[in-house]
């Protein structure tokens, strides 16, 4: 009972591992104290139990979502497994492990993913797709695996926005604002304006501008032709346009529009028991996530926990904290 309570304090109250022996902590609990070494041992055993529980529910078809995060001086890679089970999509964190900073090539990424899957008794033979940023390294990683890459749509939009921002950045100068007023009443703010403005004003401004963005989003490529090379389904930045097109059709309940070429692309997702003239595909095809925002949210949440005061933590301890705090399976163990 004591170890469970102390683990929960470290994970969910963002307390250091030595908090279990602190006088203040002990004054608020009647449970028997345990030392930090014992606490780490129990956390390691709990991690192994959660890994076994995850390995037991992984099906024969799955995908992997991953992204990188620089924490202090270590480059961590968050790896999620994406699969369909019990009529719903599951995204389970497999690991947040450091990547060798001396070699961050695509070959290193391939070896990293292979090693993570091996921990759970899986092999790349069952891997059907990757979800990640559209950078050259991740694209080459998908190519080396021989599977399609679902490039993060948020990353593509961010690249397009930065492209437009380089043009609009000059409008912050007083001499250029006259031309801008001819097209819109909105004016860009200087970089130091938001630093001193209230949070309420920032939220109001974002709400005001985002409402307009949602209206014109579908016509963005028409209004801003420069974004076409990032946002179009067949843009050069898209790694697997032949895969994303049938996925969009299946997700939109337009399976009858699939061409023979697109049906061939979806063959790895066909159900073995399908007897229809048009082979049925796994439900995961219609539920594949279009973005890797789940990784970004994980990093944002973990930054609140991994403060500079915890910079001396070993990478393995950081991984245990993030892994157990993130996975709902941890609540059952």
List the helices and strands and how they pair.
Layout: H1 2-12, H2 23-27, H3 36-55, E1 62-71, E2 74-85, E3 88-98, H4 106-119, E4 127-132, H5 136-145, E5 149-151, H6 153-168, H7 174-181, H8 193-196, H9 199-216, H10 220-223, H11 228-231, H12 241-251, H13 260-265, H14 284-287, H15 293-305, H16 315-326
Parallel strand pairs: 1-4, 4-5
Antiparallel strand pairs: 1-2, 2-3
Helix pairs in contact: 3-16, 4-5
Key words describing this protein structure:
333 residues, RNaseH-like_sf, 16 helices, 3 domains, HAT C-terminal dimerisation domain-containing protein
The fraction of residues assigned to DSSP E strands is: 5-15%
Distance between the termini: 12 Å
- What general form does the structure show? globular
The helix content is: 40-55%
Number of strands: 5
Order of helices and strands: HHHEEEHEHEHHHHHHHHHHH
| Content-based structural category | alpha/beta
Commentary on this structure:
It is built from 16 helices and 5 strands. The protein is an alpha/beta fold. A 5-stranded mixed β-sheet has the order 3-2-1-4-5, sandwiched between helices. Helix 3 packs across helix 16 and helix 4 packs across helix 5. The two termini are 12 Å apart. The C terminus is likely disordered. InterPro entries: RNaseH-like_sf. This is HAT C-terminal dimerisation domain-containing protein.
